[in-house]
Write a structure and sequence with these properties.
The chain has 458 residues and is α/β, with parallel strands linked by helices. The chain contains 19 helices and 13 strands.
Length: 458
């Protein structure tokens, strides 16, 4: 199981960590009683009061999430509609912002002190920064007062929201990365599933000889490289070291294993294990190479395995444990992943109703519908079954929680924001061959500044 990240309490940092400029996509805000596509300009203007049919003032909750695709919008709209049908005194205004624009929007909202009642967050220090700046409600009293709710969600997911001596939010769904492969291509080429990096390189060479791209890899935007390194870092430094370094107060990032991990990834690139033009290819384009059977393997989200099975055929799709680095002595069989969260603003005028709504969207019935309708993986216990998910997803989840060494949280969300940003600046450069030692020296310099600020604050 994933170990708790031992985050130390730290003094509130300046709002400069959260302030920023908005950009990218335009947010679409709707009242939950209307179809999301129709929009509601009144809600978008920030309307905060509503009247019920009998003229009484309604409780208004503003809810910000990051799932703009149609299949997701309909599900989230349905959650809000169902809740309002059961609670006619409550109106829920939904605002939907895409993945990239969400980060900018949250920075702007935090800098202006105008957070929605309920808002999305990635895990790790991305969520921690809101806690450190006093922007979120501590949900510990609500969780402890409702043992049935607490027990309905696995501890591995509650761990994601327990930091700084509080529960900063509520887990909602999780995502894992898995190495998928085309069984038919492997059989055609006479290769077996590799267990180590040296075996992986040998398999890739044979696949190339047969005219296939060994592993489809698109790093635009650059989170896929972050996920490769998230998977590889624990093998070289150990899960405990990685988690300690993600702690803003104690992280040094000085273990030489980080350099080895980066160099190992670069060696896979230089050995021809991936397609050309990694940095200019999008993740979706890389996925298409796998679906079109031009590539034999793909490292991607486990929730997409059902789509992959539809494209390739159930009999042709397989998954493997991520290969182990030769000679590595860290934590060898972790799974890269994370948990999406919803946080409650500390400024909300309706904390009880906000938490009650979070209980509603995380109950077993609604979580099972999340899996059925969207393919997203729910955090409520006993919801990933062959009734709700493809059999390969069930298999990989069973491996993750019963056999693996636990989940390693994404590199692009787990560290303190300035450290994370420095990694993000370097990911494409790493693929292009930037010296691994130089990369980690830059990370260490930023980490030293962050630690000094925490020490001064304490």
């Amino acid at each position: 199981m994933k170990k708790k990240m031992a985050l130390l309490a730290a003094a509130v940092m300046g709002m400069s960590l959260l302030a920023g400029c908005s950009g990218g996509e335009t947010a679409e805000q709707t009242t939950a009683s209307e179809a999301a596509a129709a929009g509601d300009t009144a809600a978008a203007e920030g309307e905060t009061q509503a009247q019920s049919a009998d003229g009484e003032e309604k409780i208004v909750l503003n809810w910000l999430h990051r799932y703009p695709e149609e299949r997701y919008v309909d599900y989230f709209q349905g959650l809000a509609d169902s809740y309002m049908a059961e609670h006619p005194n409550v109106q829920i205004n939904i605002e939907v912002v895409g993945d990239i624009a969400m980060k900018d929007k949250l920075k702007v909202m935090a800098g202006g002190g105008e957070m929605p009642d309920i808002f999305y967050s990635w895990p790790g220090e991305f969520a921690g920064q809101f806690a450190r700046n006093g922007l979120v409600l501590d949900l510990t009293p609500y969780i402890e007062a409702d043992p049935e709710w607490k027990d309905s969600i696995s501890d591995v997911f509650w761990d994601y929201v327990e930091m700084y001596d509080m529960h900063v939010g509520v887990p909602f769904r999780y995502s894992l990365s898995v190495m998928e492969y085309n069984k038919k291509i492997f059989e055609e080429c006479g290769v077996e599933v590799p267990e180590t990096f040296s075996e992986l390189k040998e398999v890739c060479a044979v696949l190339k000889e047969h005219g296939y791209i060994p592993i489809a890899f698109g790093d635009n935007p650059n989170w896929p490289t972050a996920h490769y390194l998230t998977q590889m870092f624990p093998q070289f430094v150990g899960q405990d070291v990685y988690e300690a370094d993600c702690n803003a107060a104690t992280g040094t990032w000085t273990d030489p294993g980080y350099v080895e991990a980066i160099e190992t990834l670069q060696d896979l690139v230089n050995s021809g294990c991936f397609n050309d033009n990694i940095n200019s290819l999008s993740y979706d384009q890389a996925t298409l190479l796998f679906y079109e059977e031009k590539a034999a393997m793909l490292y991607g989200g486990s929730m997409a395995m059902e789509t992959a099975a539809d494209e390739l055929g159930d009999e042709n799709l397989g998954w493997m444990k991520f290969p182990v680095a030769d000679g590595a002595d860290g934590t060898l069989n972790t799974v890269c992943g994370g948990c999406d969260l919803f946080l409650v603003s500390s400024a909300t005028e309706h904390p009880d109703e906000a938490v009650d709504f979070l209980k509603f969207i995380t109950n077993k019935e609604n979580q099972m519908e999340l899996a059925k309708q969207t393919g997203l993986q729910p955090i409520a216990k006993d919801t990933i079954t062959e009734e709700t998910a493809h059999k390969l997803i069930v298999e990989f989840n069973d491996y993750t929680f019963d056999e693996s060494d636990g989940i390693t949280t994404w590199l692009d969300t787990a560290p303190e924001s300035r450290i994370k940003d420095k990694f993000l600046e370097n990911l494409m450069l790493i693929i292009d061959g930037k010296d691994a030692g130089e990369v980690m020296k830059e990370i260490q310099e930023v980490a030293a500044t962050v630690r000094a600020e925490f020490a001064e604050g304490n």
